[in-house]
Design goal:
This protein is of the alpha+beta class. It is built from four helices and seven strands, in the order H-H-E-E-E-E-E-E-E-H-H. Strand 4 and strand 5 form a beta hairpin. Bound molecules: nickel (II) ion (NI).
Amino acid sequence: MSNPPQENKLRIIIAPDPVLKAVAQPITTIDDKLRKFMDDMLSTMYESRGVGLAAPQVGVSQRIIVIDPVREDGAAPQPMQMINPEIIWRSEEPNVFEEGCLSLPDFYAEIERPASVRVKYTDPQNQGHELLAEGFLATVLQHEIDHINGILILDHLSKLRRDTAIRKFKKLKKEEEVL
Ligand code: NI
């Protein structure tokens, strides 16, 4: 007999969905229930092989993100859990990465963003932090903070490309309902 799993897998919301377009609410109380939810978010992210996950993506409109920018197989994980993250500085210099999103299955797009950002956040132990991020980490942070502001990578693209992608996801969701 194996032990019951410590964490619950959460259901990831696929676009289009109103919860992905909403501006999420700030967290005012950090307690065990919230910490458990953030652990569930992290395990859901790892199981889905993502590098970041924001609470709206699991249907919870709150300002919480989890990330782990380490992508190499076998490398030590670097999980981060952030409450009320906020970008307080952006570099002038841009950077382009190909981005995907767990709410947009099999969709990838090159997105230009500031190359470095400074992010202020609170950790699950209620400690405040500031982090200067560059490279892939800066992109992941901006992508996830976009999510809690109701912004998807689709919103960084042309209207034509966005509309085409949304039609594809609507069709995908309809097919899932039928099954
Ligand atoms: Ni995403």
